[in-house]
Design brief:
The chain has 17 helices and 23 strands. It is an alpha/beta fold. The chain binds (2E)-2-methylbut-2-enedioic acid.
């Protein structure tokens, strides 16, 4: 239920509905887009970034919160690790078990590799399960991978790595079939054809969905398949350091058992990093859609062995995170709500942006409205604009919201907000890490023996990912990395295991003049108990108090 003081604005939204049914907002032109992004998108807030002081990307701008972790210290003391006692000897080690990790493990095993899957939390605890709207694949007669390619590059501000986009769009139709064969229940039309919708920045209907819990359905099936094929896995066992060999190849990892604190040494012919994103770093103080494990662990581990990163200066702020009620602050309000016809309107009931522009544009427009005093302030001081969901039933017929958005209806219904009749209050929320570990189309990083897939890698989405392209890339590059890693592991000759890179890293920190104590990384879990000496909490506090975020 909304507080009474919001009633006047809600009535303005209702009163403008009939007019807005006929109204189409023009697309934002190139110049207007550039101005909007520069002025309002968080990526362009200079104080939010700093140059990295060490490592292969030294000198490149990176969000403060990520930079602090990338320049962290190891959690292990190499002198205290017995590299002679190997606990697991495998061909392929997969780190992380969301959509990318599970796909990689399945394909590695299918290609003959003895495979071990390790994960910080439980199988499937990943951003994959939070993805709602769908997965893009050009499989209709008026569409093609080439059109999907152009949409993706346009959305990414023309910075995407072309070979990665080509791999993404070419593999997409077969990924949809693969998932269906494994058991995903895609939404279908009465004639059995795929029920496909469009999304921001997409010029065709190509989103394949399972209502508004698509990622959950995809992960359900993959998790079952990992069990069915008896792939070995360890839960609550995050990797805290990669292990190299004396030839400079990645050759395994050290894990910690979160329950017992015991360390485990895995030797592996190849390692696939699939640890997901960084939303739980709450960059620039934003709330997030991400699961609790999204703390940039894969970036940190890969960077410390010298893997190059790409586009670390760009994050995705999903335009519609819940702004009210506070209990669900920052949680995803799926883009499918806009796909189905909901419009974004300000406190005066004015539609201020075409709702299906790419996400960076829509997020910037939402921030602009709030900064220009055209948003609504909540009782806890959050700001938001209206996402007018009742438009959907007016445009597509009564019952559409209940049928297409059951998870959304339930999420808001718990707080007595009926989204079939009342709008939702939304504000951008930290959703996705556009950049990450640099890979080639087979998932190989710049370090031999190390592969990466899923949100921890970067390049395919350029500087702004389109809807449904991450629930695609996790499968495309998970599968590719799994296959390539199995092939690599068959041929590689590992040398003696070593942790020399940790010592070299510490020397580099010292040489760069970083003498203050560094956080032990990877972070593993976000720290919500703000402690006075907490490095990250300090950053968050500083950013919040600088007033960059809540500009009323
Ligand atoms: O691709 C995504 O991020 C996605 C499907 C999110 C959503 O709005 O549902």
């Amino acid at each position: 239920m909304y507080p009474a003081y919001m009633g006047e604005s809600i009535r303005k939204v209702e009163a403008s509905r009939e007019r807005r049914l006929e109204e189409t907002r023009p697309r934002v032109g190139d110049q207007e887009k550039a101005a909007l992004l520069t002025e309002f998108h968080p990526d362009f807030i200079k104080e939010g970034m700093r140059e990295l002081l060490v490592g292969p990307n030294r000198g490149e701008p990176t969000p403060n919160e990520v930079a602090a972790l990338l320049e962290g210290n190891s959690r292990v003391n190499p002198d205290k690790i017995n590299l002679g006692k190997v606990d697991h000897d495998v061909d392929v080690l997969v780190i992380g078990c969301g959509g990318a990790g599970a796909s990689a493990a399945l394909l590695a095993q299918e290609n003959g590799a003895k495979t071990l899957l390790v994960t910080k939390l439980r199988l499937g605890d990943a951003n994959t399960v939070g993805a709602q709207a769908g997965t893009q694949a050009a499989d209709r007669s008026n569409d093609s991978p080439a059109i999907h390619y152009l949409d993706t590059i346009g959305g990414g501000r023309f910075d995407n790595i072309p070979e990665l986009v080509e791999a993404l769009v070419r593999d997409a139709p077969s990924v949809i079939k693969w998932l269906e064969e494994l058991g995903v229940n895609w939404d279908k039309n009465p004639d059995g054809s795929m029920h496909e919708l469009s999304g921001g920045g997409a010029s065709r209907l190509r989103l394949h969905s399972a209502r508004d819990y698509t990622g959950l359905e995809e992960m359900r099936v993959l998790r079952d398949e990992v069990h069915n094929r008896c792939i070995d896995y360890l839960e609550f066992s995050p990797v805290i350091e990669l292990v190299m060999d004396d030839k400079g190849q990645v050759a395994g990892a050290i894990l910690v058992n979160l329950e017992t604190n015991e360390l485990t040494l895995v030797r592996a012919g190849a390692v696939i990093m699939a640890t997901g994103g960084a939303g739980r770093l709450h960059i620039q103080g934003f709330p997030t859609t991400n699961h609790y494990g999204a703390t940039a662990d894969g970036l940190v581990l890969a960077y410390r062995v010298g893997a190059e990163l790409i586009f670390m200066d760009t994050m995705q702020y999903h335009p519609t995170g819940a702004a009210y009620p506070v209990q669900i602050l920052g949680q995803l309000v799926t883009e499918k709500v806009r796909t189905l016809g909901a419009q974004l309107v300000n406190a005066e009931g004015e539609q201020f942006i075409m709702s299906l522009e790419p996400r960076d544009v829509v997020a910037s427009a939402n921030i602009r409205e709030c900064r220009h005093m055209k948003g609504i302030t909540t009782p806890t001081g959050e700001l938001g604009v209206w996402l007018d969901s009742p438009m959907i039933d007016l445009l597509r017929g009564e019952g559409t919201i209940a049928r297409e958005l059951p998870a959304m209806v339930r999420q808001f219904g718990r707080y007595n907000i009926d989204i079939t009749k009342e709008p939702m209050l939304v504000y951008p929320t930290l959703h996705y890490q556009n950049g990450g570990i640099k890979i080639d189309p087979d998932g190989a990083t710049t370090i031999p023996g190390l592969f990466a897939a899923g949100e921890c890698m970067g390049g395919v989405h350029g500087r702004n990912r389109l809807i449904g392209n991450s629930t695609l890339d996790i499968f495309v590059f998970g599968r590719r990395a799994g296959k390539a890693a199995a092939r690599y592991a068959r041929e590689v000759k590992l040398g003696a295991l070593t942790l020399d890179h940790v010592g070299k890293w510490q020397a580099e920190l010292k040489e760069a003049g970083i003498t203050e104590s560094r956080p032990a990384t990877p972070l593993l879990l976000p720290n919500y108990a703000r402690q006075p000496d907490d490095y990250l909490a300090d950053y968050a506090r500083k950013t919040l108090s600088s007033g960059q975020i809540k500009v009323a």
